[in-house]
Amino acid sequence: MAEISISTEFIKLDALLKFASLVGSGGEAKMLIQDGQVLVNGEVCTMRGKKIRPGDKVSIAGGEEVTVV
User: DSSP letters along 1-64, please?
Assistant: First the structure.
């Protein structure tokens, strides 16, 4: 499990996927989120703008999980 450090209160889900290099582009992030393939704290999340805060865990179904610190 990787850790991603942010210096702000939160980061939006689509931006986090790009920042953590889990996807190659914003378009890819949008498609994965809309298709229900992204998990936030173990639950499917279909909101691109969901605020991810330190302590949250994000993963793409079947892929590596990252923790925001």
Answer: -EEE--SSS-EEHHHHHHHTTSSSSHHHHHHHHHTT-EEETTEE---TTPEE-TT-EEEETTS-
Residue in 48, 53, 59, 47 with CA at minimum distance from that of residue 20: 59
For 12-58, write each residue's pLDDT tens digit: 999 999 999 999 999 999 999 999 999 999 999 999 999 999 999 99
CA distances from 63 to 1, 9, 60 (A): 10, 26, 5
